[in-house]
Design brief:
The complex is a heterodimer.
Chain A lengths: L2 E4 L3 E5 L4 E3 L1 E4 L5 E7 L5 E7 L5 E3 L5 E5 L4 E6 L8 E8 L8 E2 L3 E6 L1
Parallel strand pairs in A: 2-12
Antiparallel strand pairs in A: 1-4, 3-9, 5-6, 5-10, 7-8, 8-9, 10-11, 10-12
Chain B lengths: L4 E3 L2 E4 L5 E6 L6 E7 L6 E7 L2 E5 L6 E5 L5 E5 L8 E8 L6 E2 L3 E5 L1
Parallel strand pairs in B: 2-11
Antiparallel strand pairs in B: 1-3, 3-8, 4-5, 4-9, 5-6, 7-8, 9-10, 9-11
Classes of the chains: A mainly beta, B mainly beta.
Chain lengths: 114, 111
């Protein structure tokens, strides 16, 4: 069975500061990894994904994430955040060629202060 | 190109009632998944439809059922509503590999 742990439920940060949102997964097989963002009263928007290849993945809005197989992590980073980045962020894992059932973390609330 | 659309936006029902939620996938997408997102939680997978058949199902009771139409649109039906069914219901579509696109959701409140 696969699982996802988002280590921080809330991350406060000041505008223009760097941020890292942590995600660890558990799976006995290879995985696809995703980060989604959810703004209030909206659905989920894909930020970036890792399917294979380069372990450093760049996404939209200046976000990037690094897949670390040995540490089973997929942390999301941004070098300089804006007020508009305030939102809920979800990490998700899927097993390629498997049951197709994705597992989401509980989310991390990023709060950007002016 | 319209993305994934869902209707209605909001819905209020009472315990014991039945509800139907609707989803139109992104153009060209033939696979639709439904999720339940309780307040403060991540989305929980309900089921997935492909070629009008339920392909996978999460850990939800039989009160939750669905349907996919030949145009790939889909419905989620919930019978005998409980207070605990109050949540945001999300629809996602895809055409592989593995990348889902989500709709804005339907907020269901059960009183």
């Amino acid at each position: 069975a696969q699982s996802v742990t988002q280590l921080d439920s809330q991350v406060p940060v000041f505008e223009e500061a760097p941020v890292e949102l942590r995600c660890n997964y558990s799976s006995s097989v290879s995985v696809y990894l995703f980060w989604y963002v959810q703004y209030p009263n909206q659905g989920l928007q894909l930020l970036l994904k890792y399917l294979s290849g380069s372990t450093l993945v760049k996404g939209i809005n200046g976000f990037e994430a690094e897949f670390n197989k040995s540490q089973t992590s997929f942390h999301l980073r941004k070098p300089s955040v804006h007020i508009s980045d305030t939102a809920e962020y979800f990490c998700a894992v899927r097993t390629p060629g498997g049951s197709y059932i994705p597992t989401f973390g509980r989310g991390t609330s990023l709060i950007v202060h002016p | 190109d319209a993305g994934v659309t869902q209707s209605p936006t909001h819905l209020i029902k009472t315990r014991g009632q039945q509800v139907t939620l609707r989803c139109s996938p992104k153009s060209g997408h033939d696979t639709v998944s439904w999720y339940q997102q309780a307040l403060g939680q991540g989305p929980q997978f309900i089921f997935q439809y492909y070629e009008e058949e339920e392909r996978q199902r999460g850990n939800f009771p039989d009160r939750f059922s669905g349907h996919q139409f030949p145009n790939y649109s889909s419905e989620l039906n919930v019978n005998a509503l409980l207070l605990g069914d109050s949540a945001l219901y999300l629809c996602a579509s895809e055409t592989g590999p593995a990348t889902q696109y989500f709709g804005p959701g339907t907020r269901l409140t059960v009183l």
